Amino acid sequence: MKTLELDKIEKAGRQPISTTGSLAVIDALLSESVTTIFGYPGGAIMPIYDSLFGFRDKLNHILVRHEQGAIHAAQGYARVSGKTGVVFATSGPGATNLVTGLADALIDSTPLVCITGQVFAHLLGTDAFQETDIINITTPITKWNYQITDATEIPEVLAKAFYIAKSGRPGPVLIDITKNAQLQLFDYIGYRPCIHVRSYRPNPIVRPEYIEQAAKLINEAKKPFVVFGQGIILGNAEKEFQSFIEKGNLPSAWTIMGMSAIPTDHPLGVGMLGMHGNYGPNFLTNECDVLIAVGMRFDDRVTGRLDKYAKQAKVIHLDIDPAEIDKNVQTAVSVWGDCKETLPLLTNLIENKSRPEWFKEFEIKKEKETTTVIEKELNPTEGGLTMGEVIQVLNELTNGDAVIVTDVGQHQMVACRYAKQNKTRSNITSGGLGTMGYALPAAIGAKLGAPEREVIAIMGDGGAQMNIQELGTIMQFQPNVKILILNNSYLGMVRQWQELFHEKRYSFTDIQSPNFVQVAKAYNIDGRQISQREELREGLKQMLDNPSSFLLEVAVLHEDNVFPMVPQGKGVAEIVLSKEEI
Ligand SMILES: Cc1ncc(C[n+]2csc(CCOP(=O)(O)OP(=O)(O)O)c2C)c(N)n1
């Protein structure tokens, strides 16, 4: 993009022009085609906000109600749009309020550039007002961070920040800029995007011999099984992945982060992996002969006890991050590379085989899960509402076209188990860090990142109260976000563990909530509370049909449990379908 500063430089015959550090920040954002910023101002970032004032028509700044809201909103924005999320925060408490979101974005590979203000350089290390050493605080939770104390560094450092955030395995970058650097006039010669950083290899060269070895293993396999993660979505390789599994006729299961990379009703999709994933894919991980992992990182919630994980299988791992290969699971063949590049090479070499017996095993397990768990969860006829039936009716009303943003807990697991999703980038959740309070701000960001899509935030009554202040952001900026609170009057997931593993000692998990509908109404957001089965469809319809944001609180069963479950410390084949089996 041609920016205003560049215009001036061209007019000046490509001579340096005198500009401030803060205008150079704005110029960097415009050059990187940033259109949306989530932020909150304060003393140490005021020069940047002052420069932003003149560019409000080009840069849509969303004033959140808490910096944690800003960073989760930027995450939601990045996850649905594939762009880099941008955050502004001031020094001290503004910056430390970003910590949870940075950790979340790092573990979930979300590209962010966070710009924090910092005290004047001459005050650094003096315990100045709102001084905090955000660089040391965030070093282990950023892909890269850097402090700028001189304006001349701004263009190059920001270019590097955007490059590092988005390239290779994406992640969050934090750039801390002292106030003097923001105010400083310097000779500016324009913004140059970064395309290379020494010793950083985000695009590895693919080695054909490993592709050949992987193809040979797949072609010889009797029971091949694909497990895939978010790498497919991050690599925009959904089509390549679908061609791969379709050509090989390979049963494929997703991690929570990989969900929606293929439609959830794809005939080769055998369900979700993980502690509360589906019975078949978890159990049969320990029956396959070749396990093909694509863009996933063998998280412990997926593997269960590692020494009991897929020991019989030869493992092929395709990943862009070499640090993930052989980290948790020993591979027979590793294919280091961008799966958009590696998958078509592999597809070329694999054979199409029908494997009726192997697919039958998945079907048998699915039937068992359906009769013992799914049927009761989705189609109860008496008693209180279940979370599953809420998701089931929502599927019918949205036809699987909505972006589902979940918080953390039982509702998250139930939503991910049962939501129908037709399009990629439809499942936005805090997978790796499990951050309660994520959903409401992330949904705001998701709506801004994909305005044409229906965005539904699904939360528990606990998590709903963790960033509830972001209703104020919705009131002011009017993103059309639907808010669905599944209220079981407990911190449900912790209560479930207390019931199953702590002899039902419910230690501080019964939580009181405000009248959520009244709270929403105080923020000018319409809402409704329902508790009866007869009201469910009509209540959800009212929410979806409302032309603007709407909060629907559904009172669900208080002590329902999410099954199946791979109990902590157990192997994936020790997955249980009910509490009696524990
Ligand atoms: C910030 C944060 N604090 C604590 C936890 C631990 N935790 C995981 S699930 C959960 C309960 C969530 O309760 P609620 O939001 O009501 O959802 P439910 O499980 O009932 O669906 C808690 C406390 C967490 N994941 N995140």
Textual characterization of the structure:
This protein has 582 residues and is an alpha/beta fold. The protein has 3 domains: 4-188, Thiamin diphosphate (ThDP)-binding fold, Pyr/PP domains (Rossmann fold, 3-Layer(aba) Sandwich); 208-360, Rossmann fold, CATH 3.40.50.1220; 384-556, Thiamin diphosphate (ThDP)-binding fold, Pyr/PP domains (Rossmann fold, 3-Layer(aba) Sandwich), CATH 3.40.50. It contains 23 helices and 20 strands. The strands form 4 sheets. It has a 6-stranded parallel β-sheet. Helix 18 links the parallel strand 15 (403-406) and strand 16 (427-428). The chain is globular, with a radius of gyration of 25 Å. The structure holds thiamine diphosphate. Thiamine diphosphate (TPP) is lined by residues 407-411, 434-437, 460-463, 488, 490-494. Pfam families: TPP_enzyme_C, TPP_enzyme_M, TPP_enzyme_N.
List the helices and strands and how they pair.
Elements: H1 4-11, E1 17-20, H2 21-31, E2 36-39, H3 46-53, E3 60-63, H4 67-81, E4 85-89, H5 93-96, H6 99-107, E5 112-118, H7 134-138, E6 144-148, H8 154-166, E7 172-178, H9 179-183, E8 185-188, H10 208-220, E9 224-228, H11 231-234, H12 238-248, E10 252-254, E11 269-272, H13 279-284, E12 290-294, H14 300-303, E13 314-319, E14 333-336, H15 339-349, H16 356-378, H17 387-398, E15 403-406, H18 410-418, E16 427-428, H19 439-449, E17 455-460, H20 471-477, E18 481-487, H21 492-501, H22 516-522, E19 526-530, H23 533-545, E20 550-555
Parallel strand pairs: 2-3, 2-4, 4-5, 5-7, 6-7, 9-10, 9-12, 10-11, 12-13, 13-14, 15-16, 15-17, 17-18, 18-20, 19-20
Antiparallel strand pairs: 1-8
Helix pairs in contact: 2-3, 2-8, 4-6, 4-19, 10-15, 12-15, 17-18, 17-23
Bound molecules: thiamine diphosphate (TPP).
The site of thiamine diphosphate (TPP) has 19 residues, from helix 18 and helix 21.
